[in-house]
Known about the structure:
The structure holds two protein chains of two kinds. Chain A has eleven helices and 20 strands. Chain A is of the alpha/beta class. In chain A, the strands form two sheets. In chain A, strands 2-1-5-8-10-12-14-16-18-20 form a ten-stranded mixed β-sheet. In chain A, strands 3, 4, 6, 7, 9, 11, 13, 15, 17 and 19 form a ten-stranded mixed β-sheet that branches. In chain A, helix 3 (26-39) runs antiparallel to helix 8 (143-151) and helix 10 runs antiparallel to helix 11 (418-432). Chain A is globular, with a radius of gyration of 21 Å. Chain B is of the alpha/beta class. The relative contact order of chain B is 0.18. The A-B interface holds A 382-385, 387-396, 398-399, 402-403, 405-407, 409-410 and B 48-51, 71-73, 75-77, 81-82, 84, 87-88, 90-93, 97-99, 101-103, 105-106, 109, 141, 158, 162.
Amino acid sequence: MEVVDRNTEELLINHYSQLLETDPLGGLRKAAREAFLKLGLPAKKAEAYKYTLIARILGKNFDFTALTEPATSWKKEACQDKFYPNDEANHLVFTNGLYNQEFSKIKSSSADLVIETIDSQSLENIADLKQNLGALTDDKQDAFAWLNLATFSQGLFLHSLKNKDNLPTYIYHFNDAPAAAVSMPRVLALVESGSRLRVYEKTFRSGEANHLTNSLVEVDVKANGELRWTKLQNQTMADYAIEGFYGIQERDSRIYTNTFTFKTALTRNNLYLSLDAENCETHMHGLYHLNQTSHVDNYTSVDHTKPNSFSNELYKGIVDEKAHAVFNGKIYVRPQAQKTNAFQSNNNIILSDDAKVNTKPQLEIWADDVKCSHGCTTGQLDEEAIFYLRSRGIAKQHAKALMLNAFASETVQEVQDEHIRAEVENLILNKLGV
Amino acid sequence: MLEIKNLHASVEGKEILKGINLTINPGEVHAIMGPNGSGKSTLASVLAGREEFEVTEGSVTYKGIDLLELAPEERAREGVFLAFQYPVEIPGVTTTNFLKTAVNQVRESRGEKPLDAVSFLKLMKEKMKLVDINQSLLSRSLNEGFSGGEKKRNEIFQMAMLEPALSILDETDSGLDIDALKIVADGVNTLKTKETATIVVTHYQRLLNYIVPDFVHVLLNGRIVKSGTKALALELEDKGYDWIKEETAAV
Lengths: 434, 251
């Protein structure tokens, strides 16, 4: 039975229709709105959402006729209490999907890193912003990216200026859900030639009701620039999220993404990277460590269009209780993209009979002189190894934890920030019960 | 120290051990020999607590306690050690980290304080000499990519670290070159005291030239059919197992 009303899309978007008139993005919003309505939420047969019946899940858990847009109940101090203890960093706050400059703490000089609200004012004044906003989502056929573009307000613009090595930047999302609510955070990051930007993203909530986040990050990394982006997704069983990340790379540039998911009702990560020049390097790491009925779907796409680039993707999963993990990894190697090196792997450990993993690597290679590999494994913990550890006096639970921790560590080591890495390590150990 | 009485064990409904009786006193070395499939490794596994074997009859008393009631880790903490025939490779867990966890969990169960990093390292350095194992091997993932000889030396190294009262060596000599065999045997002999006992499960008599047994038992079809001194091992080496099979069949 299809629970979703046919008008879900309209209900969802009409809520924001006043935006069409109020800002200089009106034209862009209008186009996005039309694209969203035309595409609609992914239908049951949509290949890209095969194992995540998103429209049905959202329809079941949200009444789109009665969505609220709560004012934030978070106080500045309460938010800042949650900041990582790092003074040499920028701490940026979103409340209910809106960038909140007042609550943020900025350390970087604007001569190194421009941090701006995306609103009508900045759109008038910053040429780069207007030119880039929405450009990356343009040819992507994902309805949620359009939805974000049509409806977001007060986005965040990060502009890492040429040859600057910037301080780490933490982005915190504080959401309120006294009643079912939706937030649409948006970030645009422009990394100029030779500069480095490191971003760490995390979410908090108040209230017990269901909350839907439809976020979108667009990044443009210029020649020899470097961007590192880590998402720490550890929420509640009332949190639903679709998180889009769209990146484009110029020559000699590097992008590193880390996506850690520990708890969520539903999280769909859409990661689209376009290596649109020579000698680009891309590393995508992910770890999902799930229990209860958490459902996580990592959908990733890497597009090699020019020669001599390198991409490496490693996602690992530990899936327990009734959790469900989905991994879909697409690699495209276009005809001109000779000498491409592209590697992908997805390894899963299933800890219970009711847990489920669907994994699907997809390689489409048109060039003939390339090195590409992919592989996925799904299995259980090696009983013989557990017995071996126990036979040396290590308790069963501890033996399992040792092994799972070792399994996960390859992805954890990728995180440069010590605060985030320590938090991730602790989350893993807590979950393992040691 | 160890008293095995009428021990029967099966795996997936198939009976492998069909009534083992064996008594081992402190200070003794017992060799268990027998052809392939006779149940030697099963006996070692049952003593260490491998869960796929089901004990259907009989008892095992170790230092006055019912060994079969204990989980594998509890047996280890009580001083039972199994040197594996095929040591398991565990990617991502270094030998050092693993042993530190093991040693400290064993200490904790005995009400002792966990060793700090410095004392642990000191202990490790001291025991490494025994089996001529080097540091770089120990900072690698446990057994991963180790040669056969390195794996077996690592087993004896672990034994040295845990200082068990009852050591069971399961086919420790299989696949070892003579030099490695001598090192392993030296390690075992050095660790031996008047309070400890050793069970050497082996297919070949060769190992017994280096680890000299007080008693030799021949296991055949799940039963100990003959016991003797080390002279029995030599006789087996000379004549094979067929004469015992015939002798047993005649009885």
